[in-house]
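Why should sequence recovery work at all? Because a backbone constrains its sequence more than one might expect. Tight turns favour small or flexible residues, buried strands favour hydrophobic ones, and helices have their own preferences. The token representation captures these environments compactly. In the example below, the structure is given first.
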């Protein structure tokens, strides 16, 4: 299962009460496409379709962009991605991976893990939504947004749903492995087993330090969305 799974579950959190599977799909579709084929670049933000389901995907897509913008400019993200970079540095000595890159992804994965382990959302709820979407509607959206060859995306997407890879995010010791998988997209051999073990120790400790106040960033973003 290739792909750099970004913070799918953090995106799902903001729309966890939505009853539209197409809206939910839209909130994670930019990252799904990036995983399937990083050369795919779509900009459906201002498009409007005659089919409500296609429009629901577009609405979800716009929500994804909004959440990303608020998250990546938040004090919480800037502070913790920097702190993680610093505490991970000794653990990754000799690795080709850029510390900035690792700090950025590590905080996103830890947030997904915390949402799951504190029962704010469930992995089943997320996959149930994806499984509720019809392929022809998704295909309609993709071609409408300008993607002529959708086969590669669907090959990845079916595998993504089948593997239920995000279930591993509940296991804190799997986060270093997930990080390694992401880094393997850019670097051939990002970590040795020693790196992985050391990174894991750092992440387990850091997760503990976050567990009391991690919801503050979600609350802050929700407030900004309401005010927007």
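From this structural description, the recovered sequence reads:
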């Amino acid at each position: 299962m290739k792909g750099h799974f970004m913070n799918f579950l953090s995106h799902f959190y903001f729309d966890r009460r939505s009853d539209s599977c197409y809206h939910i799909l839209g909130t994670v579709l930019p990252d799904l496409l990036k995983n399937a084929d990083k050369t795919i670049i779509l900009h459906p933000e201002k498009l409007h379709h005659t089919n409500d389901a296609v429009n629901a995907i577009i609405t979800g897509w716009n929500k994804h962009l909004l959440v990303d913008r608020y998250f990546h400019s938040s004090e919480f993200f800037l502070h913790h991605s920097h702190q993680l970079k610093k505490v991970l540095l000794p653990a990754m000595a000799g690795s080709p991976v850029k510390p900035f890159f690792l700090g950025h992804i590590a905080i996103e994965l830890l947030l997904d893990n915390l949402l799951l382990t504190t029962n704010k959302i469930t992995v089943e709820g997320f996959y149930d939504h994806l499984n509720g979407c019809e392929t022809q509607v998704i295909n309609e959206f993709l071609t409408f947004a300008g993607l002529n060859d959708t086969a590669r995306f669907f090959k990845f997407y079916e595998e993504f749903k089948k593997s239920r890879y995000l279930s591993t995010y509940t296991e804190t010791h799997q986060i270093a492995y997930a990080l390694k998988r992401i880094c393997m997209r850019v670097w051939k051999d990002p970590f040795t087993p020693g790196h992985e073990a050391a990174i894991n120790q750092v992440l387990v400790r850091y997760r503990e330090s976050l567990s009391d106040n991690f919801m503050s960033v979600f609350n802050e973003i929700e407030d900004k969305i309401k005010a927007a």
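A few observations help interpret the result. The CA atoms of residues 102 and 186 lie 12 Å apart.
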